[in-house]
Design goal:
The chain is an alpha+beta fold and 216 residues long. The protein has 2 domains: 34 residues; 162 residues, ABC-type transport auxiliary lipoprotein component (Rossmann fold). The strands form 2 sheets. Strands 2, 3, 4, 5, 6, 7 and 8 form a 7-stranded mixed sheet that branches. The protein has 7 helices and 9 strands, in the order ααββααβααβββββαβ. The longest helix has 19 residues.
């Protein structure tokens, strides 16, 4: 019997033998002592970014651009920060350089991904098309809840376009705060947005390096 199974058996025996403690703070604390802090490893989905350069390109519709004019820069910067922090020797093209290219080439989104990656001087292009981006609770002007939804892809610039997509994510969706919208103060919009972008960046960057998650 492994350690995890032994610990779980101990909890079951405790709750069975001490029914008065079941559900009380003492039993919950005992369970935390046995299970708290345990983690399981998760392998990276793609490991080829080590020592390579990558351009993070965010795409959104005109309505989102109007509501959040700097979203391409702020979200790409958050993603770049997480990649540089956790992927060994990766070099992320300055998001300001990427946005400048987008602004000066109005048909950039019609380019092939490898052509765009080459224009940005990158080995890989990480494309982040926003299906949803908002900081307001649906139907409310005063309550804030950040939401980002995207299905991202990674293109290896040196390959022919039709073979260049080397990784595709499932749909990534983050919501912050998860359960209740934030309060009524105007400053909450900025705070909620920053936290939502960091949450999405963390979720996306984890696809490219080994990490651990809490054991359920």
């Amino acid at each position: 019997m492994n350690v995890t199974m032994t610990k779980r058996l101990l909890v079951l025996l405790l709750l069975a033998g001490l029914p008065l403690l079941a559900g009380c703070p003492a039993s919950r604390y005992f369970a935390y002592l046995l299970f708290g802090g345990q983690e399981k490893p998760v392998k990276a989905e793609f490991t080829g970014l080590k020592g390579k350069s990558v351009a993070v390109v965010v795409f959104c519709d005109k309505r989102t651009q109007y509501d959040y004019p700097d979203i391409s820069l702020t979200l790409a910067s958050a993603i770049a920060g997480e990649l540089e922090k956790h992927v060994e020797k990766v070099r992320v093209i300055d998001p300001r350089q990427v946005v400048k290219y987008q602004d000066s080439n109005i048909y950039w989104d019609e380019m092939g991904k490898t052509e765009l990656g080459k224009a940005l001087g990158a080995d890989f292009l990480l494309f982040v098309p926003l299906e949803e981006f908002s900081t307001r609770e649906t139907g409310s002007q005063n309550l804030y809840r950040g939401r980002i939804t995207s299905q991202c892809g990674l293109w290896q610039v040196s390959l022919p376009e039709r073979k260049a997509r080397v990784w595709q994510s499932e749909t990534i969706r983050v919501v912050h705060p998860e359960h209740d919208p934030s309060g009524l103060l105007q400053e909450n919009d900025r705070v909620v947005r920053e936290k939502t972008e960091r949450l999405f960046a963390d979720r996306l960057a984890k696809k490219f390096y080994d990490h651990k998650v809490p054991l359920e």
